[in-house]
């Protein structure tokens, strides 16, 4: 069973949940935003997923400390983990990396991401080697944990996706649906108002949305399925 941690109602598992349902893989959603406690036992858990949120991993929330401790425990037990945005930063910090405000400012909207060559990219990305436009919504970035291998990079922020064994951490959001993008564009108005080189207005973010989401899914599906494959190996 996969355990998914949600930190705010609007940032759910999206496309990942679709894939898990298609493959008939059980998952449990822990709604941290509704006050659900972080379970400290990993019994019966084959994978952990940490979703996004507007908070910082450096904020003083009890649940952040609990999640960091859980990530360390899961890493020692070799349980595959998956992180999107805040989730990737939680994994980074728990494994000894540093998370901090990014010099390039907020990276929000559709921006091109490039493959970073190496054996890790070969395993996780297969023959996908062309630039791809993915969805972003973050202002913080990180230094990679020691054991991490970088697989994706963008012009604004070099560290976009990294792997540690069977764990995959993505600064960008490959789990979003068109509905989620529209909702964030109306909810996170204060972020958009800050402007900046890599911060797109809502009109641009929502332009050609269906075709952009279709392209995102074409990229994301084999990548997420590769992670699911690692989870399935935990069942045997």
What does it look like?
The chain has one domain: Rossmann fold, CATH 3.40.50.880. Helix content is 36%, strand content 24%. It is built from 8 helices and 11 strands. The strands form 2 sheets. It has a 9-stranded mixed beta sheet with strand order 2-1-3-4-11-10-9-6-7, with helices on both faces. Strands 5-8 form a two-stranded antiparallel ribbon. The longest helix is centred in the last third of the chain and has 26 residues.
Short description:
With 236 residues, the chain is of the alpha/beta class. It has 8 helices and 11 strands. The two termini are 13 Å apart.
Which descriptors apply to this entry?
alpha/beta, Rossmann fold, 236 residues, 8 helices, two-stranded antiparallel ribbon, 36% helix, 11 strands
The class by helix and strand makeup works out as alpha/beta
**CATH A-level architecture:** 3-Layer(aba) Sandwich
Largest sheet: 9 strands, mixed
CATH topology title: Rossmann fold
Order of helices and strands: EHEEHEHEEHEEEEEHHHH
Low-pLDDT sequence parts:
none
Helix content: 25-40%
Give the CATH level 1 class. Alpha Beta
How do the strands and helices of this protein lay out in sequence?
Layout: E1 2-6, H1 14-22, E2 27-31, E3 47-50, H2 62-76, E4 81-84, H3 86-94, E5 98-101, E6 107-115, H4 119-125, E7 132-138, E8 140-143, E9 149-154, E10 161-164, E11 167-170, H5 178-187, H6 189-193, H7 202-205, H8 209-234
Parallel strand pairs: 1-2, 1-3, 3-4, 4-11
Antiparallel strand pairs: 5-8, 6-7, 6-9, 9-10, 10-11
């Amino acid at each position: 069973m996969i355990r998914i941690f949600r930190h705010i109602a609007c940032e759910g598992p999206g496309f990942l949940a679709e894939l898990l349902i298609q493959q008939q893989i059980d998952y449990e959603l822990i709604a941290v935003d509704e006050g659900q406690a972080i379970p400290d036992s990993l019994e019966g858990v084959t994978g952990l997923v940490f979703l996004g949120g507007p908070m910082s991993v450096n904020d003083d929330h009890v649940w952040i400390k609990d999640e960091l401790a859980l990530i360390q425990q899961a890493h020692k037990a070799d349980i595959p983990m998956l992180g999107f945005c805040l989730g990737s930063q939680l994994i980074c910090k728990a494994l000894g990396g540093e998370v901090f405000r990014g010099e390039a400012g907020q990276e929000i909207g559709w921006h091109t991401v490039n493959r970073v060559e190496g054996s890790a990219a070969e395993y996780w990305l297969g023959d996908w080697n062309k630039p791809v436009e993915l969805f972003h919504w973050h202002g913080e970035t990180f230094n990679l944990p020691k054991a991490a291998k970088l697989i994706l990079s963008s012009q604004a922020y070099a560290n976009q996706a990294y792997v540690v064994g069977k764990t995959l951490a993505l600064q960008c959001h490959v789990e979003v649906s068109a509905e989620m993008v529209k909702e964030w564009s109306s909810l996170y108005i204060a972020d958009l108002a800050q402007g900046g080189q890599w911060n797109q207005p809502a009109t641009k973010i929502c332009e050609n949305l269906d075709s952009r989401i279709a392209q995102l899914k074409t990229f994301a599906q084999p990548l997420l399925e590769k992670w699911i494959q690692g989870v399935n190996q935990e069942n045997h």
